[in-house]
Specification:
11 helices, mainly alpha, Arc Repressor Mutant, subunit A
Length: 266
């Protein structure tokens, strides 16, 4: 039996993972994002390799941020040939992966850096408006609108309006009736009550409770909004009485020493 020499194996070029058809640069397999900005997922997450995320996970996370947090549509961008049900299932699975959550957390943390105070100020300002708005700001006693232009209403109070409905009636629909729907106070009051309760219990000191934390910025904003700029006093009644008694004792001691000094001059 004669053995014939086999053909030498020809090593081909390794295939590169391609996520999109259009390449940003020659030889680049990264796809362009769907916002028409010419960016790639690496532009959004330049340090994605440090997290251990793959290109698919990075592309998915970038599209998830761009489309308004829709996991189904984000996964559809990574594979346009799959049906909607499969995209929904795979998108949900990708979103739960720790590396994807880390990418999203890192991006949002960097975006929020330096903006927390501003955002929390708007939050507290809106909560105050929703909880304590005066209906006479919007309506007259007869039910007609109390304003003709939105500029007459402060911006925080405009957020209390959830909808406006205009009804026309009459033979020629020459008459109209405007119904304004205002926000319900209950949810805003509950949120403010929760913040106040957390602050009174010392949110910065009670680190053992994960549900009882408020940032220092939120505490300052809430203090300014609800207390007209006055600092929140967390002292207990016993501490207030003790400090008052100490001040009174100090005042009497100072008064007696002054009396002794004056008597010595005589």
């Amino acid at each position: 039996m004669t053995l014939k020499p086999g053909k030498p194996q020809v090593k081909g070029k390794p295939k590169r993972k391609t996520l999109g058809k259009k390449a940003l640069h020659p030889g680049d397999s990264l796809p362009l994002l769907s916002d028409n900005s010419g960016r790639t997922p690496v532009d959004v997450f330049p340090d994605y390799k440090e997290t251990g995320a793959s290109l698919v996970e990075t592309y998915f996370a970038a599209e998830y941020l761009l489309n308004g947090f829709n996991a189904t549509e984000a996964y559809r961008k990574t594979n346009t040939s799959l049906p909607t049900n499969t995209c929904a299932c795979m998108g949900s699975e990708l979103l739960r992966r720790p590396v994807v959550q880390q990418l999203l957390h890192t991006y949002t943390s960097q975006w929020l850096q330096g903006k927390c105070f501003e955002l929390e100020h708007h939050l507290m300002e809106t909560l105050q408006a929703l909880a304590f708005y005066d209906i006479s700001t919007f309506l007259n006693p007869d039910g007609t609108l109390n304003f003709k232009d939105w500029n007459e209403i402060p911006v925080p109070l405009r957020r209390c309006v959830e909808g406006i409905e205009v009804k026309f009636f009459g033979a020629q629909a020459q008459q109209s009736q405007i119904n304004i729907q205002l926000a319900k106070r209950s949810e805003a009051l509950k949120a403010i009550a929760s913040y106040v309760s957390i602050m009174r219990n010392g949110p910065l000191a009670s680190a053992s409770s994960n549900n009882s934390k408020v940032s220092a910025e939120a505490e300052l904003v809430l203090s300014a909004v609800l207390n007209s700029g006055r600092k929140v006093d967390r002292r207990t009644p016993q501490q207030l009485r003790a400090e008052k008694a100490e001040k009174e004792l100090s005042r009497q001691d100072t008064k007696s020493r002054n009396a002794i000094s004056f008597s010595g001059l005589g």
